[in-house]
Design goal:
CATH class: Alpha Beta
Radius of gyration: 18 Å
Strand content: 15-25%
Oligomer: single chain
Number of strands: 10
Structural class: alpha/beta
Protein backbone atom coordinates (compact mmCIF):
# COMPACT_ATOMS: atom_id res chain seq x y z
CA UNK A 1 0.00 0.00 0.00
CA UNK A 2 1.19 3.52 -0.70
CA UNK A 3 1.01 6.41 1.75
CA UNK A 4 -2.32 7.71 0.48
CA UNK A 5 -3.94 4.29 0.96
CA UNK A 6 -2.68 4.14 4.54
CA UNK A 7 -4.02 7.66 5.20
CA UNK A 8 -7.41 6.73 3.74
CA UNK A 9 -7.57 3.66 5.97
CA UNK A 10 -6.64 5.68 9.03
CA UNK A 11 -9.14 8.43 8.29
CA UNK A 12 -12.07 6.01 8.11
CA UNK A 13 -12.14 6.38 11.90
CA UNK A 14 -12.74 10.02 12.78
CA UNK A 15 -11.45 9.78 16.35
CA UNK A 16 -9.92 6.39 17.18
CA UNK A 17 -10.31 5.15 20.73
CA UNK A 18 -6.90 4.62 22.33
CA UNK A 19 -6.42 2.55 25.48
CA UNK A 20 -3.27 3.74 27.25
CA UNK A 21 -3.08 0.64 29.46
CA UNK A 22 -2.03 -1.78 26.71
CA UNK A 23 0.99 -2.19 24.44
CA UNK A 24 0.83 -4.39 21.34
CA UNK A 25 3.94 -6.45 20.48
CA UNK A 26 4.17 -7.74 16.91
CA UNK A 27 6.96 -10.20 16.03
CA UNK A 28 8.28 -10.38 12.48
CA UNK A 29 11.08 -11.73 10.32
CA UNK A 30 11.45 -11.00 6.60
CA UNK A 31 7.72 -11.09 5.81
CA UNK A 32 6.93 -7.49 4.82
CA UNK A 33 3.84 -8.42 2.78
CA UNK A 34 2.31 -10.28 5.72
CA UNK A 35 3.35 -7.61 8.21
CA UNK A 36 1.60 -5.00 6.08
CA UNK A 37 -1.70 -6.90 6.30
CA UNK A 38 -1.25 -7.35 10.04
CA UNK A 39 -0.72 -3.61 10.53
CA UNK A 40 -3.72 -2.82 8.34
CA UNK A 41 -5.88 -4.94 10.62
CA UNK A 42 -4.37 -3.22 13.67
CA UNK A 43 -5.21 0.19 12.24
CA UNK A 44 -8.82 -0.96 11.78
CA UNK A 45 -9.31 -2.01 15.42
CA UNK A 46 -12.21 -0.59 17.42
CA UNK A 47 -9.67 0.17 20.17
CA UNK A 48 -6.06 1.09 19.46
CA UNK A 49 -3.24 0.27 21.87
CA UNK A 50 -1.10 2.90 23.52
CA UNK A 51 1.78 1.85 21.27
CA UNK A 52 2.81 -0.79 18.76
CA UNK A 53 6.18 -2.46 19.20
CA UNK A 54 7.57 -4.37 16.21
CA UNK A 55 9.86 -7.12 17.54
CA UNK A 56 12.06 -7.74 14.49
CA UNK A 57 14.35 -10.79 14.56
CA UNK A 58 16.77 -9.48 11.92
CA UNK A 59 14.70 -8.53 8.86
CA UNK A 60 16.21 -6.78 5.83
CA UNK A 61 15.51 -3.08 5.07
CA UNK A 62 12.28 -3.69 3.12
CA UNK A 63 10.56 -4.46 6.42
CA UNK A 64 11.96 -1.29 7.98
CA UNK A 65 10.57 0.72 5.03
CA UNK A 66 7.01 -0.41 5.77
CA UNK A 67 7.43 0.33 9.47
CA UNK A 68 8.81 3.82 8.77
CA UNK A 69 5.85 4.59 6.52
CA UNK A 70 3.40 3.44 9.20
CA UNK A 71 5.20 5.49 11.84
CA UNK A 72 4.25 8.62 9.89
CA UNK A 73 0.60 7.56 9.54
CA UNK A 74 -0.59 5.72 12.63
CA UNK A 75 -2.36 7.63 15.43
CA UNK A 76 -0.19 5.87 18.05
CA UNK A 77 3.61 5.47 18.29
CA UNK A 78 5.26 2.54 16.52
CA UNK A 79 8.60 1.36 17.91
CA UNK A 80 10.89 -0.78 15.76
CA UNK A 81 12.95 -3.10 17.99
CA UNK A 82 15.48 -4.83 15.71
CA UNK A 83 18.31 -7.28 16.27
CA UNK A 84 20.84 -8.70 13.81
CA UNK A 85 20.01 -11.95 12.05
CA UNK A 86 21.84 -14.70 13.94
CA UNK A 87 19.26 -17.41 13.55
CA UNK A 88 15.85 -17.87 15.19
CA UNK A 89 16.07 -15.83 18.42
CA UNK A 90 12.41 -15.14 19.12
CA UNK A 91 12.76 -15.24 22.91
CA UNK A 92 15.46 -12.58 22.89
CA UNK A 93 13.63 -10.15 20.60
CA UNK A 94 10.45 -10.55 22.64
CA UNK A 95 12.36 -9.71 25.82
CA UNK A 96 13.76 -6.62 24.13
CA UNK A 97 10.25 -5.62 23.04
CA UNK A 98 8.84 -6.15 26.55
CA UNK A 99 11.59 -3.87 27.86
CA UNK A 100 10.31 -1.11 25.56
CA UNK A 101 6.64 -1.55 26.56
CA UNK A 102 5.37 1.46 28.50
CA UNK A 103 1.89 0.11 29.29
CA UNK A 104 1.23 -2.32 32.16
CA UNK A 105 -0.59 -4.82 29.92
CA UNK A 106 0.85 -6.52 26.81
CA UNK A 107 -0.92 -8.16 23.89
CA UNK A 108 1.44 -10.32 21.84
CA UNK A 109 0.88 -11.36 18.22
CA UNK A 110 2.92 -12.42 15.21
CA UNK A 111 3.32 -10.34 12.07
CA UNK A 112 1.63 -12.92 9.85
CA UNK A 113 -1.90 -12.75 11.20
CA UNK A 114 -5.00 -10.74 10.37
CA UNK A 115 -7.03 -9.51 13.34
CA UNK A 116 -10.79 -9.34 13.66
CA UNK A 117 -11.65 -5.69 14.35
CA UNK A 118 -12.58 -6.34 18.02
CA UNK A 119 -9.38 -8.30 18.72
CA UNK A 120 -7.77 -5.80 21.09
CA UNK A 121 -11.10 -4.94 22.71
CA UNK A 122 -11.72 -8.64 23.39
CA UNK A 123 -8.34 -9.15 25.06
CA UNK A 124 -9.02 -6.15 27.28
CA UNK A 125 -12.51 -7.42 28.09
CA UNK A 126 -11.24 -10.76 29.41
CA UNK A 127 -8.07 -9.60 31.18
CA UNK A 128 -7.78 -10.11 34.93
CA UNK A 129 -5.09 -9.50 37.50
CA UNK A 130 -2.65 -12.43 37.81
CA UNK A 131 -4.03 -14.09 34.67
CA UNK A 132 -2.54 -14.77 31.24
CA UNK A 133 -4.83 -15.04 28.21
CA UNK A 134 -4.07 -17.69 25.60
CA UNK A 135 -6.34 -17.51 22.56
CA UNK A 136 -6.38 -19.56 19.39
CA UNK A 137 -6.05 -18.75 15.73
CA UNK A 138 -7.62 -19.96 12.53
CA UNK A 139 -5.28 -21.00 9.74
CA UNK A 140 -5.96 -19.74 6.25
CA UNK A 141 -5.52 -22.30 3.52
CA UNK A 142 -2.71 -21.79 0.99
CA UNK A 143 -5.27 -20.59 -1.56
CA UNK A 144 -6.85 -18.12 0.87
CA UNK A 145 -3.43 -16.79 1.84
CA UNK A 146 -2.39 -16.29 -1.77
CA UNK A 147 -5.63 -14.43 -2.52
CA UNK A 148 -5.32 -12.16 0.53
CA UNK A 149 -1.72 -11.24 -0.24
CA UNK A 150 -2.59 -10.54 -3.86
CA UNK A 151 -5.64 -8.38 -3.13
CA UNK A 152 -4.21 -6.87 0.10
CA UNK A 153 -7.47 -7.84 1.80
CA UNK A 154 -7.04 -7.56 5.57
CA UNK A 155 -10.74 -7.80 6.43
CA UNK A 156 -11.62 -10.73 8.68
CA UNK A 157 -15.02 -12.19 9.40
CA UNK A 158 -16.36 -15.63 10.27
CA UNK A 159 -17.21 -16.07 6.59
CA UNK A 160 -13.63 -15.41 5.43
CA UNK A 161 -12.03 -18.14 7.58
CA UNK A 162 -11.94 -21.92 7.09
CA UNK A 163 -15.09 -23.58 8.39
CA UNK A 164 -14.69 -25.80 11.48
CA UNK A 165 -17.05 -27.98 13.44
CA UNK A 166 -14.79 -28.36 16.51
CA UNK A 167 -14.73 -26.41 18.62
CA UNK A 168 -18.16 -25.56 17.26
CA UNK A 169 -17.89 -22.68 14.81
CA UNK A 170 -14.86 -21.29 16.66
CA UNK A 171 -14.46 -18.55 14.05
CA UNK A 172 -17.77 -17.04 15.22
CA UNK A 173 -17.29 -14.18 17.71
CA UNK A 174 -19.57 -14.61 20.71
CA UNK A 175 -19.06 -13.55 24.33
CA UNK A 176 -21.52 -16.25 25.45
CA UNK A 177 -19.62 -19.04 23.68
CA UNK A 178 -16.30 -17.59 24.82
CA UNK A 179 -17.37 -17.63 28.46
CA UNK A 180 -18.68 -21.19 28.10
CA UNK A 181 -15.37 -22.35 26.67
CA UNK A 182 -13.43 -20.62 29.46
CA UNK A 183 -15.55 -22.44 32.05
CA UNK A 184 -14.73 -25.80 30.41
CA UNK A 185 -10.98 -25.27 29.96
CA UNK A 186 -9.63 -23.85 33.21
CA UNK A 187 -7.10 -26.63 33.70
CA UNK A 188 -5.67 -26.96 30.21
CA UNK A 189 -2.06 -28.07 29.95
CA UNK A 190 0.47 -25.42 28.90
CA UNK A 191 1.34 -27.51 25.82
CA UNK A 192 -1.75 -25.94 24.25
CA UNK A 193 -0.29 -22.53 23.54
CA UNK A 194 -0.33 -19.90 20.83
CA UNK A 195 2.34 -17.27 21.29
CA UNK A 196 0.86 -15.37 18.38
CA UNK A 197 -2.34 -14.74 20.34
CA UNK A 198 -1.52 -14.09 23.96
CA UNK A 199 -1.77 -11.29 26.54
CA UNK A 200 -0.38 -10.80 30.03
CA UNK A 201 0.65 -8.22 32.62
CA UNK A 202 4.20 -6.96 32.21
CA UNK A 203 4.84 -7.24 35.94
CA UNK A 204 3.94 -10.93 35.80
CA UNK A 205 6.38 -11.51 32.93
CA UNK A 206 9.14 -9.89 34.98
CA UNK A 207 8.39 -12.20 37.93
CA UNK A 208 9.67 -15.13 35.84
CA UNK A 209 12.41 -13.12 34.06
CA UNK A 210 10.54 -13.16 30.76
CA UNK A 211 11.32 -15.53 27.92
CA UNK A 212 14.34 -17.85 28.03
CA UNK A 213 17.02 -16.48 25.69
CA UNK A 214 18.70 -19.90 25.64
CA UNK A 215 15.73 -21.45 23.87
CA UNK A 216 16.74 -20.74 20.28
CA UNK A 217 15.23 -22.19 17.14
CA UNK A 218 11.53 -22.75 16.54
CA UNK A 219 9.32 -24.34 19.15
CA UNK A 220 8.23 -24.34 22.79
CA UNK A 221 9.58 -20.93 23.83
CA UNK A 222 5.95 -19.84 24.33
CA UNK A 223 5.06 -23.05 26.16
CA UNK A 224 8.01 -22.58 28.49
CA UNK A 225 6.95 -18.98 29.21
CA UNK A 226 3.36 -20.01 29.93
CA UNK A 227 4.44 -23.00 32.01
CA UNK A 228 6.67 -20.88 34.24
CA UNK A 229 3.86 -18.33 34.56
CA UNK A 230 1.58 -21.10 35.83
CA UNK A 231 4.28 -22.33 38.21
CA UNK A 232 4.45 -18.77 39.55
CA UNK A 233 0.73 -18.88 40.29
CA UNK A 234 -0.49 -16.96 37.25
CA UNK A 235 -3.79 -18.43 36.06
CA UNK A 236 -4.36 -19.19 32.37
CA UNK A 237 -7.50 -18.12 30.55
CA UNK A 238 -7.96 -20.07 27.32
CA UNK A 239 -10.27 -18.40 24.83
CA UNK A 240 -12.10 -19.28 21.66
CA UNK A 241 -14.95 -17.37 19.99
CA UNK A 242 -13.23 -14.08 20.89
CA UNK A 243 -9.79 -12.55 20.25
CA UNK A 244 -10.13 -13.97 16.74
CA UNK A 245 -7.25 -13.93 14.26
CA UNK A 246 -6.51 -15.57 10.94
CA UNK A 247 -3.02 -16.94 10.30
CA UNK A 248 -1.52 -16.48 6.83
CA UNK A 249 0.09 -19.71 5.69
CA UNK A 250 3.85 -19.78 5.08
CA UNK A 251 6.74 -22.21 4.79
CA UNK A 252 7.36 -23.89 8.13
CA UNK A 253 10.46 -23.05 10.11
CA UNK A 254 13.04 -25.77 10.64
CA UNK A 255 12.36 -28.00 13.63
CA UNK A 256 15.94 -28.93 14.55
CA UNK A 257 15.66 -27.53 18.09
CA UNK A 258 12.10 -28.68 18.72
CA UNK A 259 12.78 -31.79 20.81
CA UNK A 260 15.39 -30.07 22.97
CA UNK A 261 13.14 -27.07 23.63
CA UNK A 262 10.19 -29.35 24.37
CA UNK A 263 12.23 -31.36 26.85
CA UNK A 264 13.39 -28.19 28.63
CA UNK A 265 9.88 -26.73 28.83
CA UNK A 266 8.18 -29.91 30.06
CA UNK A 267 10.96 -30.58 32.55
CA UNK A 268 10.53 -27.13 34.07
CA UNK A 269 6.80 -27.62 34.33
CA UNK A 270 7.30 -30.87 36.25
CA UNK A 271 9.91 -29.34 38.56
CA UNK A 272 7.81 -26.20 39.14
CA UNK A 273 10.56 -23.92 37.82
CA UNK A 274 9.61 -20.23 37.54
CA UNK A 275 12.86 -18.29 36.95
CA UNK A 276 15.41 -18.54 34.12
CA UNK A 277 18.97 -17.29 34.43
CA UNK A 278 19.18 -15.86 30.91
CA UNK A 279 15.99 -13.95 30.31
CA UNK A 280 14.53 -10.44 30.37
CA UNK A 281 17.09 -8.96 32.79
CA UNK A 282 20.02 -10.29 30.78
CA UNK A 283 18.66 -9.08 27.41
CA UNK A 284 20.77 -6.27 25.94
CA UNK A 285 19.35 -2.98 24.82
CA UNK A 286 18.29 -2.46 21.20
CA UNK A 287 21.10 -3.15 18.71
Amino acid sequence: MDKNEWIALRDKKVSPSINASVSLIVTTYNSPDRLELTLCSVLSQTIMPREIIIADDGSTPDTAAIIQLCQSIFPVPIKHVWQSDKGFRLSLIRNKAIRQAEAPYIIQIDGDVVLEKHFIADHLHFRKAKHIIIASRMNYTARMTKRKLKTRNFQLSCFSLPFTFYPLFRNVRSKILANWFISKSRHRDMRWAAGSNMSYWKEDALLINGFDNDLVGWGYEDNDFIGRMKNQGIVTITIKHSCIQGHLRHIKNTREHLQHNKSVALGRQQRQVTWVENGYRESPQIE
